[in-house]
Every structure is written in structure tokens, then in C-alpha cells.
UniProtKB/TrEMBL annotation:
Name of the protein this chain belongs to: Laccase
Cofactor(s) this protein requires: Cu cation
Family the UniProt entry places it in: Belongs to the multicopper oxidase family.
Gene Ontology CC entries for this record: apoplast
EC class: oxidoreductase
Signal sequence, start to end: 1-28
Length: 562
């Protein structure tokens, strides 16, 4: 029988809202959490295995906070792996020490050690998420962050009767770290996942999974807010509910102009809030998710399901399956993303930079380097502007803050060293890819435009890119090669979508803008874990501004050491 598994989560949420409403609207509170990183035995798809968890839970606990709150999360590592946790989408103003990516803003928390992430939630409300940011541990170490508006501030859309968090993920029957290690040793992509999951459960279309099915009970005539998070390692996903229309109202904790759709597309790292009305014939309806891939690259294309069940309907009623877009439906992907617009209201304006101080153009490439011990004598790597990023052994923010020499170079190229027909015929030639820990230095408060250009080096592919420490405005996107003479004239500079993770379309480009007003060292990387491991990443060193109030905060005393 399907588990009506969100009851405790919903009760926790309702209690949190009640307490929040009872507090003074002028008073920010302190929220404290304890995260114990521990190994727990979990069974899925007829396979039992030990996995790394937070507090023994998979997925992990939800962080609840109000806009304006201070949050303290003490992480104690009881597992055999080093760990760090990233609070994905939180801007961490001047406070990169709490951002979490291992060897970028901190050294990892070693086994037997603890570290307290201490940060303020300023000027943000909505759905974000947290996850491990080292190795492939985020396969099982992840959870939701729900930030409510300041007490007394309503949503800019109809108030829902209830909320559910929906975390989409991937499951491997074997040890994920061993699978990734084996792939690296062979110089090839590791084995793809054995299933997708919804709140950690693959659903009844998989063997031994009838009891591993998430179900949400709804009442006729009520409206529900679904906070959807793509926590998958390597797959962009379609999501739909049979017979029910979705109204998109928020992405990446930024309100949108509402629009209705039968399905959404959500890339790894992204969040999407939708309203769903329980206005259909009372019954049981499948919630379904499946991978989107419009390039000739194999993916896990199996469909994970959960159940939307009307109150009073017995479990013996067979659910109806939704019609998801075809797995390679490029038109749906492009059309859906064009519908995303910032709300751009008086209360929630879209402050798009209209003047640009620094223009960056980064090409995304895959390549092969010689590897005598690998299966084919080569190893796959990935690069931006022909530079494949090498992770340092000292955290970049520490090296920057304490002026430690020799850890990184600030000569990452603003443009590709060798222009070519980026999306023309497939190119198998290696452009002599360079490796190194190279970053870009950005002046404080300057405005930046970055164009990310996919290429046909080995293969075109869609890439979701995440920038830590910032939101940005997606001012333009297109298929083919970016044309600097013509394409900027088509930019949306009025109400472009604002977010922290954006998909670069297969064989296309995406342009975004941001103001560099958050000093520190901020990671930018493809959120396909496979590509991040291959080197598809870099970082921005945003210089301090005038005075202490525009400079990086002093590091905490319990900051982990390498």
C-alpha cells in the first residue's frame, strides 16, 4: 500500500507557520538544527545497501525559516567520508564561509569533526535546498529549504490550503562512490542510475517498490502548493500529474508571472513551485517524472511515480498515468523556458543591470586526454574556454582571505582562446585542453554579462549551470552560435527570469547578467555531477568593496582545516 508519507512533514510545517505567525513581524528569530552525518541501511528495488544520510533520513530533514531569520546548523560527521554541505541558492552575503562547497569556500568536515554553518536569510523567500558538496555524496545527502515570507506578508498568488515538498532524485543499487571511482579509473562515464525517485521512492512501476511509493492525500476543491526540487545528480527531468494542470508561481525562490502548463521541465539544482487544484473526479492519479535528453547520450529513461490520492478513495483504485513530453522534446523545453518571467512588481522588482562593465563569453566543451591506464587509453574531461578546472588542496576562499600564494591563478580567459564554429559538425579534435586552478577576478559592484555557449566538441548537450552566492537574470537564450552583433538586440531587459541555476540548451547559448555586490570566492559549475567531476567549473573572486560593510566577514573559529 502506498504510504501517505507527508503527514509528519505537513504537521511540522503547520506548527512552524503557527509559531512564526505568533512572533512579532519586526523580530527575526534564530533557527537551530543538528545534522548528524551517519550511515544507514536502506532498501530500494530489492537491493539493500548502506548509504550516507543526515540523521538517518533519506531524503534528509527540511530546513524551515522565515525571511530575515538567522540559521545555525551544526554538522557532525560520523561517516567514513569527508563531508561539506551547500545551502543551494542562499546568497550568503559576505559570508562565503557558510556556502559549503569543499575546497572552494571551506575544507571538508573530517570524520569525527563538527562545523556550524551560521548564516542569515536576507531578502529571500521561497524554495531552495541543501546537499552534500563533495564527491557524489549528494546522491543521498540532500533535503529541502523552505523560507516563508516575513510574518504578515502574503504570497503574491492565491493562498494554498496545504503544501508538499517534492524532491526528485536518482537511485543506484550499488555504492555510488565506488561506481564513480570505477568510471574515473576507466576514463569513461560511470554507470547510469537504476531509478529515479520522488521523495526517495521510485514508485510501483519498479520491482519491490509498492511500499516505496510516496503519496499525497488531497481534498476536493482545495489548492495545494508543491515545492519541487530536482536533486538528481545527472538528469534534467519532466514532471507532471495525471489529469491536473500545474500553475508555475516561483522558480529558485523567485516569484514568477504565473502560467499554466501540463508539465514542467526542471534541471538538477533548480526548484519550481506550482499550484495544483484538486478539481478532478475523485480518484488516484500518478505523479510522474522522467529524464529529458535531446542529444545522442544515454540516460536513465525509466519513469518514477508517486500518487495524488483524493481523500476517501481506497488504495485498490488503479491510478491514471500522465502524458509526459517525449524524452527528446526540444520544442517543449525551449517553449517552457521562454514562459518563465520575473513577477517584476512594485514589491518584487526585476533590477536587471542595463549597463554592462564586464562581458564574458565561455564555451562549454568535452574532450579526451591521454590516459595510458584507462580502458581506451584516454580519459574524458570537460572545460570552459578550454580550461578544465583542477580542485585545489586548500580552500580558495581561505587562500584569498589570508593571501596564501600558489593556490590559484586569476587569469581565467574572458573569451575562448581559439574561436571556431561552436555548434557546427561534431569535432573530435582535442583543442589541447589546459588544466589548472584558474579563476576570474571581478571588481566589487561591477555588472557582469556572461554568455555560456554549448559546443559540439565530442557532442552537444544541455548543461545546467549554477552560480554560488548570486541570483542572475537570464536575459537571452538561443539555438546555434551566439551572434554578438544581433542577439543582444533580442534580450529581455524588462522582466527576465531571475534564478541561480540555468540550463544552456543543447547546441545553443544562454546569456545572463548580475551585479557583483557580494565579495568572496564563488563557485560556478555545471550541476550535472558527472561534468563537474570532469572539470566543467570555475570560480569568481569578487573583490572587497569600500569599508568593512562591503568586505568578506572574518572566518568562524571552528572553520575546518585541510
Amino acid at each position: 500500500m502506498a504510504s501517505l508519507g507527508c503527514s509528519m512533514s505537513a504537521l511540522t510545517f503547520l506548527f512552524f507557520v503557527f509559531v512564526s505567525l505568533m512572533s512579532s513581524s519586526s523580530e527575526a528569530s534564530i533557527k537551530k538544527y543538528q545534522f548528524d552525518i551517519q550511515v544507514a541501511n536502506v532498501s530500494r528495488l530489492c537491493h539493500a545497501k548502506p548509504i550516507v544520510t543526515v540523521n538517518g533520513r533519506f531524503p534528509g530533514p527540511t530546513i524551515y525559516a522565515n525571511e530575515g531569520d538567522r540559521v545555525l546548523i551544526n554538522v557532525t560527521n560520523h561517516a567514513q567520508y569527508n563531508i561539506s554541505i551547500h545551502w543551494h541558492g542562499l546568497k550568503q552575503y559576505r559570508n562565503g564561509w557558510a556556502d559549503g562547497p569543499a575546497y572552494i569556500t571551506q575544507c571538508p568536515i573530517q570524520s569525527g569533526r563538527s562545523y556550524t554553518y551560521d548564516f542569515n536569510v536576507t531578502g529571500q523567500r521561497g524554495t531552495l535546498w541543501w546537499h552534500a558538496h563533495i564527491l557524489w555524496l549528494r546522491a543521498t545527502v540532500y533535503g529541502a529549504i523552505v523560507i516563508m515570507p516575513t510574518p504578515g506578508t502574503p504570497f503574491p498568488f492565491p493562498q494554498p490550503d496545504r503544501e508538499f515538498e517534492i524532491l526528485l532524485g536518482e537511485w543506484w543499487n550499488n555504492d555510488v562512490e565506488e561506481i564513480e571511482k570505477q568510471g574515473n579509473q576507466m576514463g569513461l562515464p560511470p554507470n547510469m542510475s537504476d531509478a529515479h525517485t520522488i521523495n526517495g521512492k521510485p514508485g510501483p512501476l519498479f520491482p519491490c517498490s509498492e511500499k516505496h511509493t510516496f503519496a499525497m492525500e488531497v481534498e476536493q476543491g482545495k489548492t495545494y502548493l508543491l515545492r519541487i526540487i530536482n536533486a538528481a545528480l545527472n538528469d534534467e527531468l519532466f514532471f507532471a500529474i495525471a489529469g491536473h494542470t500545474l500553475t508555475v508561481v516561483e522558480v529558485d525562490a523567485v516569484y514568477t508571472k504565473p502560467f499554466t502548463t501540463q508539465a514542467i521541465l526542471i534541471a538538477p539544482g533548480q526548484t519550481t513551485n506550482v499550484l495544483v487544484q484538486a478539481n478532478q473526479v475523485a480518484g488516484r492519479y500518478f505523479i510522474a517524472t522522467r529524464a529529458f535528453m535531446d542529444a545522442p547520450i544515454p540516460v536513465d529513461n525509466k519513469t518514477a511515480t508517486a500518487i495524488l490520492q483524493y481523500k476517501g478513495i481506497p488504495n485498490t483504485v488503479l491510478p491514471i498515468l500522465p502524458q509526459l513530453p517525449a524524452s527528446n522534446d526540444t520544442r517543449f523545453a525551449l517553449t517552457y523556458n521562454k514562459k518563465l518571467r520575473s513577477l517584476n512588481s512594485a514589491r518584487y522588482p526585476a533590477n536587471v543591470p542595463l549597463k554592462v562593465d564586464r562581458n564574458l563569453f565561455y564555451t562549454i566543451g568535452l574532450g579526451q586526454n591521454s590516459c595510458p591506464t584507462c580502458l581506451n587509453g584516454t580519459r574524458i574531461l570537460a572545460s570552459l574556454n578550454n580550461v578544465s578546472f583542477v580542485m585545489p588542496q586548500t580552500a580558495l576562499l581561505q587562500a584569498h582571505h589570508f593571501n596564501i600564494k600558489g593556490v590559484f591563478r586569476t587569469d581565467f580567459p574572458d573569451h575562448p582562446p581559439t574561436p571556431f564554429n561552436y555548434t557546427g559538425a561534431p569535432l573530435t579534435a582535442n583543442l589541447a585542453t589546459l588544466t589548472g586552478t584558474r579563476v576570474s577576478k571581478i571588481a566589487f559592484n561591477s555588472t557582469v554579462e556572461l554568455v555560456l555557449q554549448d559546443t559540439n566538441l565530442l557532442s552537444v548537450e544541455s548543461h545546467p549551470f549554477h552560480l554560488h552566492g548570486y541570483n542572475f537574470f537570464v536575459v537571452g537564450t538561443g539555438v546555434g552560435n551566439f551572434d554578438p552583433a544581433k542577439d543582444p538586440a533580442k534580450y529581455n531587459l524588462v522582466d527576465p527570469i531571475e534564478r541561480n541555476t540555468v540550463g544552456v540548451p543543447t547546441g545553443g547559448w544562454t546569456a545572463f547578467r548580475f551585479r557583483a555586490d557580494n565579495p568572496g570566492v564563488w563557485f560556478m559549475h555545471c550541476h550535472l555531477e558527472l561534468h563537474t567531476g570532469w572539470g566543467l567549473k570555475t570560480a569568481f573572486v569578487v573583490e572587497n568593496g569600500p569599508g568593512q560593510e562591503h568586505s568578506v566577514l572574518p572566518p568562524p573559529k571552528d572553520l575546518p582545516t585541510c
